[in-house]
Design a protein that fits this description.
The protein has 569 residues and is mainly α. It is built from 26 helices and five strands. Helix 7 packs antiparallel against helix 8, helix 12 packs antiparallel against helix 13 and helix 15 runs antiparallel to helix 16.
């Protein structure tokens, strides 16, 4: 914030007086960037370091019982009370890195990530070898999808403490998010070498192996996790997706017994329900399968506290903001940027992952997977957190292109297959006039059913867990795409999933022509593409393209009670 000099000096002095040494240091350095010879800023910066040295030597930590009370409150999830306690102790013991670290962790749990990062920085400034604070700061950065920054912070945690298993696990998560699958796998294995019973790392390693198509290895890893923690509900769900079951399968018997226990919380019971749905479906007990699916979905919707009205309001706001973005379309000229983004979008479970596999089989294309940048920026524009302007859109453009260039592996085209980027087509057209937009469409009933049967890790897809909601959301999507078509129709390539499965070669050739690429035969064998796939379709895309997947819902038609009738008109 660009304050007048005297205001900035007063604020820096106040931070110094309050014991916020890191914040004071940053403010004095900012002043000296603008006024290099300012004596008050120079003296203030000296005082910061003198006070740091002085306070570090005294190691002012609160009594052990105060810390224990704080830890207990945090452990119980009493974050408001914990926050009140940490704020009190932070004022009384401003140079206690322990208090600051707990304070940051509390803020993190309350999703106040920016503030938590500032507090962790304060703790690290006082105690530069504070590995736990580095690790916690990395978690806050990860939650903000600042993946590169998070990776650097986890590296610092490991530099301080090379035996920090938790930091290796978190490093694996951010590496996997960047598509660095081998490096991620190595990080998970290092965590397990240090801490062999670190059960959640087995889960993460299993996911990384699954995304690489190493199914048998993943199954063994999941089984190892269950040998340590037999009631690990989430792992039961992941393993069920990789296994074909018979009614006498030991895991099925174990999971069914687990479902009958009273000790399960709602999240665990939800995961077990989805596992039982998959198991019952495998051996043809469709009535039981549907029953478990309904119960699992009801619990997931409850846990997410989802109401479709929120989505309805968001869609309305998108239409209201569209004229502002349309006014900015064409203001950014197609630059000589060497990277061309390709946005593959549509409803989740419509075939977007398959299309990315096809395109990224080409030697001049890198598949970056589902990137969150458009969604994050677009949401801020819609909810009014940021005001639409040419300069802001230009800044977003540069940041996005910089990021995908880093992911490009030296090729000219990078795909971003976040399905729900369909919400932000006006932003895409305004920020990236050179981009290609591929809208993947699938049979409405097949799409809705496939959404309903999935446990999405993404918490933004709450509509999926109710038959009425998923139909309503699909109609919102169709209406919005029709609305976008009026202004942006000539910039959108519409691809029908069913046509692709019936006439694979012709549809694929047409797609490659749209991208202005030379034909490569590898595009007809997407199942051979070895890139990591993180989406719910990670298993299907390892198989050859086949017809009939859009009809699987008919096995449950008797139980649906006409829920999809309005989609077939």
């Amino acid at each position: 914030m660009d304050l007048k000099l005297n205001q900035a000096l007063r604020l820096a002095q106040k931070k110094l007086k309050d014991g916020s040494l890191y914040a004071a240091k940053c403010m004095y350095k900012d002043i000296l960037k603008r006024f290099p010879k300012n004596k008050k800023a120079i003296e203030g910066l000296k005082l910061v370091y003198l006070k740091k040295i002085s306070e570090t030597k005294t190691n002012k930590n609160p009594p052990a019982n105060d810390l224990q009370i704080l830890i207990d409150l945090y452990g119980k999830g009493s974050f408001e009370k914990a926050l009140e306690k940490t704020e009190f102790l932070s004022k009384k013991f401003p140079q206690s890195p322990v208090v600051l670290n707990i304070h940051g962790a509390v803020l993190q749990s309350m999703k106040r990530f920016d503030r938590s990062i500032d507090v962790f920085k304060e703790a690290i400034f006082i105690k530069p070898d504070f590995a736990e604070a580095y690790n916690n700061m990395g978690l806050s950065l990860t939650s903000q999808y600042k993946i590169i920054e998070a990776e650097e912070v986890f590296k610092k945690a490991l530099a301080v403490n090379p035996d920090f298993a938790e930091a290796y696990n978190n490093m694996g998560i951010v590496l996997k998010e960047q598509g660095k699958m081998k490096e991620a796998t190595d990080a998970y294995r290092k965590a397990l070498f240090i801490k062999p019973d670190f059960v959640s790392v087995f889960k993460n390693l299993g996911l990384a192996l699954t995304e690489q198509g190493k199914i048998e290895e993943a199954k063994e890893v999941y089984k190892k996790a269950l040998s340590i923690k037999p009631d690990f509900a989430e792992v039961h769900r992941y393993l069920s997706a990789l296994t074909n079951y018979k009614a006498d399968d030991p895991q099925y018997i174990q999971v069914k017994k687990l479902y009958g226990t009273k000790e399960l919380n709602d999240k665990e019971r939800c995961n077990i329900s989805f596992a039982l749905f998959k198991m019952c479906e495998d051996f043809g007990e469709f009535s039981n399968a549907f029953d478990f699916l309904m119960k699992g979905n009801a619990l997931r919707k409850k846990l997410l506290k989802y109401s479709i009205q929120k989505d309805k309001n968001f869609f309305l706001q998108l239409k209201k903001e569209q004229p502002k973005l349309l006014a900015n379309s064409g203001k950014l000229k197609k630059s000589c940027n060497t990277i061309i983004p390709v946005f593959i979008l549509g409803m989740p479970r419509s075939g977007t992952t398959l299309v990315e596999q096809i395109i990224s089989s080409h030697s001049q294309v890198t598949g970056a997977g589902e990137l969150n940048y458009v969604k994050q920026f677009g949401t801020k524009l819609v909810d009014g957190s940021s005001l639409i302007s040419p300069s802001l859109i230009s800044e977003f453009r540069e940041q996005y292109l910089k990021e995908i260039k880093r992911l490009s592996n030296g090729v000219s085209i990078v795909t971003d297959k976040m399905p729900q980027n369909f919400l932000f087509i006006p932003l895409i057209c305004a920020a990236f006039p050179e981009s290609k937009i591929i809208h993947v469409q699938r049979n409405p009933v097949a799409t809705c059913w496939s959404n309903y049967t999935q446990y999405f890790v993404n918490n933004d897809l709450g509509y999926s867990y109710d038959l009425i909601d998923v139909v309503e959301y699909f109609k919102l999507y169709k209406d919005l795409m029709k609305f976008w078509q009026i202004s942006y129709g000539d910039q959108i390539y519409n691809l029908e999933y069913e046509k692709l499965t019936v006439d694979q070669e012709n549809e694929t050739r047409s797609l490659i022509r749209y991208l202005e690429l030379d034909w490569e035969q590898a595009c007809l064998a997407p199942q051979d593409n070895k890139r990591g796939v993180k989406t719910a379709s990670k298993l299907q895309v390892r198989k050859k393209i086949y017809q009939g997947s859009s009809e699987t819902w008919r096995k449950y038609e008797l139980f649906l009670d006409g829920a999809f009738d309005s989609l077939q008109c």
